Amino acid sequence: MAEPGIVAVTGASRGIGSAIALELARRGFTVGCLSRRGRGPEDAAVDAATAARLIPLVCDVTEEPSVVSALATLAERPEGLWGIVNNAGVNHVAPSEALGLAEFEAVLRTDVLGVFTVCRAAYPHLARRGGGMIVNLGSFFDKMGVPRNLAYGAAKAAVGAMTRGLAVEWASKGISVMNVAPGYIETDFNREFLARAEVKAFLARRIPVGRTGTADEVARLVAALFTERIGYLTGETIYIDGGHGVGH
To answer: Reduced to 3 states, what is the DSSP secondary structure of residue 104?
Structure first.
């Protein structure tokens, strides 16, 4: 099993990606913070010790040359590239009958093709150093029928399928592939929506634990997978949704 090196996190500038990057850095990992602006976490205060473990890089997951260049830069460092967190994603909310093909394609390009592009570009680096771990960020929408979220649900179902396929193909190279699937997680992107009285009341009734989740909780789960590095655990989807997806 390869010794831990750099973990690259896509979409690391804000929200769940930022929280994951910071949690990994606080646990001692060197973290490649990949985002289109290349600035690293922008929505939280970062102390000097944590900042020293962050490597901000420009990377657009919809552009293969950008992905290849960013991962090669990390792989060339002495620590080497050891892990990937595929967090970058977009959504387009609309009634399915009004969802345009261009909007559907845009979601798939980032949420599906982007994940594949990063995984494929990371493979030679991980295989060459004897293995590593890829954690994809899915969603519990992959198993639910959610009105106005057709493209996102389809994309996240594809992420789960890719996770299983890559886990089986790459196991012999020492590469584990996991899918972490959050439920409703409060971030800057959805805080205003989740604060609506009717939305809060609905989710309080619908989610067994009685609340939405936090980016920190998702980050701790992802970081735990890298910290523990259980070699026999691969190809699985772990839901972190407060019991929402299984609640009757």
So the answer is: helix
Helix (H) or strand (E) holding 12: none
Could you tell me the CATH number of the domain that includes residue 123? 3.40.50.720
Q: Which residues are catalytic?
A: 152
Measured between alpha carbons, how far is 145 from 195 in angstroms, rounded to an integer? 23
Q: What is the largest CA-CA distance in the chain?
A: 52
Q: Are strands 237-240 and 213-214 parallel, antiparallel or unpaired?
A: unpaired
Contact 144, 102 (CB under 8 A): no
CB 65 within 8 A of CB 42: no
One-letter amino acid of 214: T
Give the closest residue to 109 by CA, choosing from 85, 97, 92. 92
pTM over 0.90: yes
Q: Number of structural domains, the chain? A: 1
Dump pLDDT digits (tens) for 190-213: 999 899 999 999 999 999 999 999
